[in-house]
Design a protein that fits this description.
Layout (H helix, E strand, L loop, with lengths): L2 E6 L4 H11 L10 E7 L6 H7 L3 E4 L13 H12 L5 E4 L8 H6 L4 E5 L11 H7 L4 E8 L9 E8 L6 H25 L2
Parallel strand pairs: 1-2, 1-4, 2-3, 4-5
Antiparallel strand pairs: 5-6, 6-7
Helix pairs in contact: 1-6
The protein binds ligand NHR and glycinamide ribonucleotide.
């Protein structure tokens, strides 16, 4: 069975959707992998409690503990890689993971690293995507699953989900509508990546 390691920073609802797909008993809904570990850069990430409740190994690698002026990211990424590699993952899945990863990290997991980003890429890379989509007057918004490369939010697009922007939407109501689609799309894409080799 292939191993998956999921990286989170917050509530971890996409992680939970993937965990549930790995537990599903319907063959057509099942994701055929072991979620070996859930790792967070924030010790208080809510998703850690859910992972523990499902008997999944958890780890915390705090980015604040590693940053130095000369190497703001390298030492953190090195520690993160060491932790991840103990689980020998076939895929490393970013699910609301909020730290930009160094080229060394990306190269180490080349072809095995995916992210879900809350916009219709290539529109709105980076942060605060829902505010920016509303500000721009977009009539549709959504989320994108993509491969992670050294250029932020620019890797190969694997899938997209589209939702309408509705009158009176706030960043919160739009985020909620997008997130519901993320929970459907992300487990499916991960399942597809597992069957492709
Ligand atoms: N790393 C690389 N190399 N490439 C990508 O495409 C990545 C990545 C790391 C994370 C997720 C991404 C998103 O889906 C992601 C894609 C964090 C930031 C950010 O600016 C931007 C994009 C994404 C994740 N983070 C700040 C930083 O300094 C910290 C913000 C915070 O802690 O709240 O790392 O949106
Ligand atoms: C999701 O909408 C995800 O696309 C987004 O944060 C939310 C995480 O929710 N990711 C990013 O913004 C990455 N920078 P979750 O923790 O409940 O899965």
């Amino acid at each position: 069975m292939k191993n998956i390691v999921i990286l989170i920073s917050g509530s971890g609802s996409n992680m939970a959707a993937i965990v549930q797909a790995a537990q599903a008993d319907h063959w057509d809904k099942r994701l055929d992998a072991r979620i070996s570990a859930v790792i967070s850069n924030r010790p208080n990430a809510l998703g850690l409690a859910f992972a523990k409740s499902q008997g999944i190994a958890t780890a915390v690698v705090e980015h604040t503990a590693f940053a130095t002026e000369r190497q703001p990211r390298e030492a953190f990424d090195a520690a993160l890689m060491t932790t991840i590699d103990t689980y020998q993952p076939y895929l490393v899945v970013l699910a609301g993971f909020m730290r930009i990863l160094t080229p060394g990290f990306v190269a180490h997991y080349a072809g095995r690293l995916v992210n879900i980003h809350p916009s219709l890429l290539p529109a709105f890379t980076g942060l605060h995507t829902h505010e920016r989509a509303l500000q721009a007057g977009c009539q549709f918004a959504g989320a994108t699953v993509h491969r992670v490369t050294t250029e932020l939010d620019h890797g190969e697009i694997l899938a997209q989900a589209v939702v309408p922007v509705l009158a009176g939407d706030t960043a919160e109501t739009l985020a909620e509508r997008v997130l519901a689609q993320e929970h459907v799309m992300y487990p499916r894409v991960v399942a597809q990546l597992l069957t492709r080799g």
